[in-house]
Amino acid sequence: MRLTRRTLLSLAAATTALSMAVPLRAADAPIVVGATVPTTGPLSLTGKQYFNTLTMAAEDINAAGGINGRPLKLAIEDAGASNSTAVSAFVKLIQDTKPPFAFITSYSTQNLAVAPEVAKAAIPVMYAGGADAVAEGGNSWMFRIRPADSVTARAMVQFLKAKLRAAKPGIVYIQNDFGQGGAQVAAKQLEALGVPVVGTEAYGQNDKDFSAQLLSLRAKGADVILAFVYPADGALLLRQAKMLGLKMPILSSSAAFVPAAMQLLSPGDLDNVWGVVDAFVDPSAGERMKDFATRYKTKFGTDADPYGLAYYDGAMLMADGMRKVGTHPKALRDWLAAVKGWDGVGHVYSFDGKGNGVTDVAVVKAKPGTKTLELLERVKLD
Amino acid sequence: MADFIQLLMNGLALGSVYALAAIGFVIVYSATGVVNFAAGQFVMLGTFAGVATLVNGGWSLPAGYLGALAAMALFGALFYAVVYLPLRNSPAVTMIIGTVAIGITLQNAALLGFGSWPFRLVSPFEGMTVDIAGAVVPVHAIAVVVTTAVLIGLLWLLFNRTTLGIAMRAVAQDLVAARLMGLKVGALLAFTWILAAVLAGVAGLMLGPMWFADVNMGDPIALKAFAATIIGGFGSLPGAIAGGLFVGLTEVLGAAYVSSAYKDLIAFGAMILFLLLRPQGVFGERIQDRG
Amino acid sequence: MRSLLGVAALLIVGLALSLIVSEYTLRLLNLAVVAAVAVVGLNFAFGYAGLISLGHAAFVGLGAYVLAILTTKLGWSPWLAAVPAVIGTGLAAAVLGYPLLRLKGHYLALATLGLNVSFGIVATNWIDLTGGTNGIANIPGLTIAGHELSGERPFLWFGLAVLAALALIAAVIHRSRYGRAMMAVRDDETAAAMTGINVTRMRVAAFTLSALYAAVAGCLFATHIHFISPDDFSYAHSITHLAMLIVGGEATIAGAILGAVLLTFLPEWLRVLGDAYLAFFGLMTLAILIFLPTGIVGLATRWVRRPAPPQADAAIGAEEASRP
């Protein structure tokens, strides 16, 4: 018994000595950055993209000498498909690795659920959920690395009015935080521009038949259809629109143009279809984009999408900040909040008072008879 | 009018898929009394068996279909041995939770095996459409309706004209008596699960080209199949078909003429109304017979 | 007396844990406590009255939404808002129960499942009231005598106190005339009716009690996470609640609590397995159902009482129940 206690004491002493020794070696100890990514469930389709790009970014950062000589290490936890799992994953990360910085998911409801824990942890995080409600929450630790849904919706409306000359627009949207929010903003904007929508139709996340929604919009005389979609359902919707013989142009949100959706489409499905995407991820969009896109494809065997790119840029931005102001969470937060005109691969990032970093989107269209997208214009909103 | 016919045809095609999923569910329920909450995952596996043979394996269509259905038969036998046999004497609710648990495993195993990307199965009638009174109908959708009808005919023959089918019905009606009559009850129950898995396989292969296949497609199908089963009648094959078509049609027509946001409320509301007013469904058994 | 001891044990273990474990484990304990409140409630419906409900999460959600709406839109204190949340949910269950509870077995299971799906559809689309899929954020936390229960640890203490009180009430009801009447209805409806028990009223009472507990769980959930959305109350959560009860050992309060704790922690423990963890979770749940048919509580009882005689009668009864 006494022996045990003595052993314990010496063990404790050794631990103390060890923990005191750590700061001395901190100069080359890895900096651990946390990330919660959906790797299971329906959200993992997009999650896989940024799982990949975050890994790639960490490798790139380390290949370039790490953070002032210290290597960067990622600790990734599965955020699953529910809010509760996302929060648990985040709290576990904070607990296990005490990271100075973390990435959270690209799903607004998960972002909203995690927000109180972010405030509690008091570390800066980057997120890619689009809902405006996330930024309106007033959490000063959260930075959005994608255009907000209202930005996308406003850009869609502008393009619709100016270029497609819509007089009687119709809206079809997916019944989730993204679709509901986007449809609401778009309807209000169109109203303000003097071209009120003739119809708004919803569909469920798991729906497979959109004939009722599309035919109803046609019957109401819609001359352009605005579509707020997710990847697989977006592809299915575009296919069915062609099958039903809809002639009016369709202006779709980003997700229908991610590689996972594009591989499901035939060239004919993209006829008379325009897309407003977060960023134009294509080798033709400049040297740095070409480098990113080709390396992604070689490494992971599929094409990169704008969600993946957002996290890649985010990681590079974070590394830049850490090099300049170190890894103290508060210092890093203040540095990020002051970022203006930081030139990433996908966007020029400037954070506003609510932590929105991106205010530009791209309009794309497939070249006739092909699935090759080309950039029509970039839309910058203030 | 052309729009209405179009909606009608789309609703029928959608309903046929629900009906097929519901049939697999009903066969298992009538023979074993199990409410199979993994029924949707069975259909998902059917589609991915097709993905494995046709897309990843590059087999020809007939070989790919046969290979996928053979794999599903094997899966049905495995399910019988690993899930049904150990739990067969448990209360109904344990069986419900058990099938949910194995459903979670199946879905995640598929995610590990196939990844999260959606797949597109090629149809034997790729790109073909016909014009019916101004409505554009893909030939594949017609094939789905026809296949469903043929399968139902075959099932009817099985259960009414073959010794095997009659023995299966005997087991379904009274297991102890069937055993006393010298029927090989174990083998017959195993065959029931195999049959259900193969039918789910057919459903999966047929919906693969209409919808896109992803590993999370199972649960939504199961929900609609449950609603179809209740509306049609719990233990009844014609009921599963009528219920499936009803759910498919309400989904499409409800979205068109009532509200696209609340359309699923119509189907599930109808299901609850049926439960309250006519719990035996359109064609169903008398409710007192089962607990 | 035994239930008092049980509740004391729960409080002591909970308090001891709350002082030594990490923040992350504290959070999981809080999730487990909230789930346990709901599952102790479900035990009235399923464990005592034999009603298979797959709509329990809808009642959790109803309670949570009423509290969230009253606090965020009308600025009520969460304490005050919890009153209409719980009472309203109980009323809703009673009103729905009268027609629904004529159904039994699988029929009731699927009807309540439909109810849960319908709740989700309404919560998703009634945007003005519920915020749609974006849900309701910034739900205020509870305060006690000026102290906000903001950290995981104070919340756990409060949650444990609520759970202990509700478990005690459940134990009292279990032993009361009403508890016995519910179980009589479960075991033999006709016999129960002949002894003068109003079968329908007993069923509705059990269902309503279970919904009241669910609403309390909903209020705890909303004030703990400070954010709710329709996803948090999907039918999958209802199935989880039922699974917790079965895995823990049905018809016992201890089983309800143990099951809630185990199924909250199990997927988190399995995270070390990487991408395959949910696949293993399903298999392990199945294994528990197969190898521990009476749940954790059954295992513990067997341990204590040693060689129990083979329960031939019970096995035959079970077979008959599961057979058409």
UniProtKB/TrEMBL annotation, chain A:
Which InterPro entries does UniProt cross-reference here?
BCAA_transport, Leu-bd, Peripla_BP_I, TAT_signal
Q: Does the keyword Methyltransferase apply?
A: no
Q: Which domain of life is it from?
A: Bacteria
Domain Leucine-binding protein: start-end pairs: 30-368
Query: Which keywords describe this protein according to UniProt?
Result: Amino-acid transport, Signal, Transport
Question: What's one GO BP annotation on this UniProt entry?
Answer: amino acid transport
**Segment forming the signal sequence:** 1-26
Concerning its family, UniProt says: Belongs to the leucine-binding protein family.
Protein's name according to its UniProt entry:
Branched-chain amino acid ABC transporter substrate-binding protein
* Gene assigned in the entry: livK-1
Automatic annotation (TrEMBL), chain B:
Q: Which InterPro entries would you find in this protein's record?
A: ABC_transp_permease, BCAA_transport_permease
Q: Which Pfam families match?
A: BPD_transp_2
Which segment of the chain is annotated as a signal peptide? none
Q: Does the keyword S-adenosyl-L-methionine apply?
A: no
The record lists the membrane-crossing segments as 12-35, 42-59, 65-85, 92-117, 137-159, 188-213, 225-249, 261-277
Localization = Cell membrane
Any one Gene Ontology BP term: amino acid transport
Alphabetized UniProt keyword annotations: Amino-acid transport, Cell membrane, Membrane, Transmembrane, Transmembrane helix, Transport
GO MF terms, alphabetically ordered: transmembrane transporter activity
The record gives the membrane topology as: Multi-pass membrane protein
Report which superkingdom the organism of origin falls in: Bacteria
Q: Which family does it belong to?
A: Belongs to the binding-protein-dependent transport system permease family. LivHM subfamily.
Please report the name of this protein according to its UniProt entry. Branched-chain amino acid ABC transporter permease
UniProtKB/TrEMBL annotation, chain C:
| Gene Ontology molecular functions | branched-chain amino acid transmembrane transporter activity
Chief location: membrane
Q: Where, subcellularly, is it found?
A: Cell membrane
Give any Pfam family that matches: BPD_transp_2
> Which key words are in the record?
Cell membrane, Membrane, Transmembrane, Transmembrane helix
Q: Which GO terms describe its cellular component?
A: plasma membrane
Question: Organism's domain of life?
Answer: Bacteria
Membrane disposition = Multi-pass membrane protein
Residues passing through the membrane, by range: 76-100, 107-127, 155-173, 204-227, 239-265, 277-300
Looking up PANTHER family in the UniProt record yields: HIGH-AFFINITY BRANCHED-CHAIN AMINO ACID TRANSPORT PROTEIN BRAE, HIGH-AFFINITY BRANCHED-CHAIN AMINO ACID TRANSPORT SYSTEM PERMEASE
Protein's recorded name: Branched-chain amino acid ABC transporter permease
> Which organism encodes this protein?
Chelatococcus reniformis
